[in-house]
Write a structure and sequence with these properties.
The radius of gyration is 34 Å and the shape is elongated. It starts with a helix and ends with a helix. 61% of the residues lie in helices and 8% in strands. With 564 residues, the protein is of the alpha+beta class. Helix 14 runs antiparallel to helix 15. Strands 1, 2, 3, 4 and 6 form a five-stranded antiparallel β-sheet that branches. The chain has a four-stranded mixed β-sheet with strand order 5-10-9-7, covered by helices on one side. The N terminus is likely disordered.
Length: 564
């Protein structure tokens, strides 16, 4: 039976693929499409290539600029992909990452009739029950959502974030296309240093969270709880009756965005206070809570009338588990102590690097250069953001894939540090966040931490001792029932082919013949000495030795010819 949903999706994907190819050709990527064979996996690809050959524009702009313009023209999914990739210079060249940071989320607004229809689909009759009025003029329009101010029935000012109609279907088609392109890239360009398909899956998960506004509502509430005792740091209040997967109702923030704030209008004391409170909040999120706002740029930070700091747009978040935090503390302490081997061990634990890399002379040299940059540093004077940034550069140099949570951590710390330097270059950020760094070290190396590790280790050994009799009994039972088996995993046998096997078996056979000639000829020569009148034995033996020597000399020649 034909699946109508599958057919519609196929038609939609084909149409979208044609649009993607047309945009790539428009920006001068026709040769890339032809050489990689991408047009062959996308329906109508070759037809579009042939039709647009005469219309291909002259390539005058740099490659990185053309990539950015392609993503901007292709819309929501590709803009968001570019924004995510701009935070991952471990996956793309640094100059491309820098260009992609210029991607703008601002998009043309859509008519309020469509927004009203979306609200009605999500909230039904609750629209009139919840809102006294909704302003038809949006205050922001991004690639995925549009934001409108509104007033609740009780007079509270709020903002409505509404997912654009049709954007989810477009994202679904785009992700199908991206997955096909990633599979093709992984097949033909294996030396990437990372998995393109895994990267697309990671992006797909991030985009799914971005479209799901309930996820943003929950993390915003969690941030509010984490800072409930700190009146200097705020997050918008979520109004849950007006919140669904596609509609988010948030408290209206009465303040000025940091990106629109003129620093010259503030006193030196006000600038210092904003930098101090904002940076301390981000470092607390990263190093104390292990759950942080991954994009604290000036467009996501409000300065309120009472001087407090409010973070908005909490869709992109990062998480650092306790074990990663411990490895991070080990890295910091090893750098301070100039302990190269411990730095390398921490690197192995924090990344996906092969353990054999620790014996690589060039890697050890570069790791030592990384340590030397902080030669005279102490815990009190250590620049945490700079240390993580230099560590990230070391990983990128050796094409070591850095886990996304660590990349987001580096991004968050370096972003807020950049905000601080812009507002108040004289502010001592390192000294101000020293308590968070010291707390990180104490949790790893303090007496209480050591006590906890000893206790945890003892419990694991006790559990092992308790489970050992049962595990041993299971093994003995398998042996008794003749069900015990050992699985061996071969490596490299898939590279063998019929010619290789034939050559190896032929070489072994010739070797056995040569050995037989040597042994048999030697026996005949020795036998001739003991036998009177049997001189032909020596002749036969000598002939056999000569043939064996010639065959042995021919083997290396045969091997050399085969290698050529």
């Amino acid at each position: 039976m034909t699946d109508p949903i599958g057919i519609r999706r196929r038609i939609r994907n084909t149409k979208r693929a044609a649009e993607v190819i047309a945009v790539l050709i428009k920006h001068g990527f026709r040769q890339v499409l032809s050489e990689t064979g991408i047009e062959r996996i996308l329906e109508r690809g070759q037809e579009i290539l042939l039709r647009s050959k005469a219309e291909e524009p002259a390539i005058t702009k740099p490659f990185t600029v053309r990539v950015r313009e392609v993503l901007e023209e292709l819309g929501a999914t590709f803009i968001k992909l570019g924004q995510v990739l701009s935070t991952r210079p471990d996956l793309i060249p640094p100059e491309l990452a820098e260009e992609l940071r210029r991607l703008q989320s601002d998009c043309p607004t859509i008519p309020f009739e469509e927004i009203s229809k979306r609200l009605r689909e999500e909230l039904g009759d609750k629209v009139e029950q919840l809102y006294l009025s909704i302003d038809e003029t949006p205050i922001a329009a991004a690639s995925i959502a549009q934001v409108h101010p509104a007033i609740l029935r009780d007079g509270t000012r709020v903002v409505l974030k509404i997912v654009r109609p049709g954007v989810e279907e477009t994202i679904e088609s785009d992700m199908d296309i991206l997955m096909e392109l990633a599979a093709l890239t992984e097949k033909y360009f294996s030396e990437q240093g990372y998995s393109p398909t895994e990267t697309v899956r990671e992006f797909q998960q991030e985009l799914a969270r971005e479209v799901d506004l309930i996820h943003e509502a929950r993390v915003t509430d969690r941030f509010r709880q984490n800072f409930r005792d700190d009146p200097r740091i705020r997050f918008p209040l979520v109004y849950w009756p007006g919140t669904t997967r596609r509609v988010l109702t948030l408290e209206h923030i009465d303040g000025v965005l940091l990106s629109k704030l003129d620093p010259t209008t503030l006193s030196a004391e006000e600038r210092r206070r904003i930098v101090a409170e904002g940076s301390e909040a981000v470092f607390r999120q990263c190093l104390e809570h292990g759950f942080f706002h991954a994009d604290p740029h000036p467009g996501n930070i409000f300065v309120l009338r009472d001087g407090a700091i409010c973070f908005i747009d909490c869709g992109m978040t990062g998480r650092i588990d306790k074990q990663t935090m411990q490895h991070l503390a080990s890295l910091v302490m090893s750098v301070v102590q100039s302990d190269l081997d411990s730095v390398i061990e921490a690197t192995m634990a924090l990344s996906d690097a092969e353990t054999t890399l620790k014996f690589d002379r060039s890697f050890r040299r570069d790791a030592w250069n990384f340590v030397a940059r902080f030669d005279s540093a102490t815990i009190e004077s250590l620049d945490m953001a700079m240390l993580l940034d230099e560590f990230f550069k070391l990983l990128r140099r050796y094409r070591i894939r850095c886990p996304a949570d660590l990349v987001f951590l580096i991004k968050a710390l370096t972003t807020i540090q950049g905000v601080g330097q812009t507002l108040d270059p004289t502010f001592d950020l390192v000294g101000h966040v020293r308590p968070q760094i010291e707390q990180l070290i104490r949790e790893r190396y303090g007496f209480k931490a050591a006590q906890e590790r000893i206790k945890a280790g003892a419990l694991r050994y006790l559990s092992l001792i308790e489970d050992l009799p049962d595990e041993l009994r299971d093994v003995l039972d398998q042996i008794r029932r003749r069900e015990f088996s050992v699985n061996l995993r071969h490596q490299g046998l898939d590279r063998l082919n019929d010619n290789t096997i034939e050559h190896a078996s032929g070489t072994i056979a010739v070797g056995m013949v040569i050995a037989g000639l040597f042994v048999g000829s030697s026996v005949l020569i020795l036998a001739e000495r003991q036998t009177v009148g049997w001189t032909y034995l020596r002749v036969v033996g000598t002939a056999g030795l000569t043939i064996g020597i010639l065959m042995a000399m021919a083997l290396p020649i045969r091997w050399i010819r085969r290698r050529k």
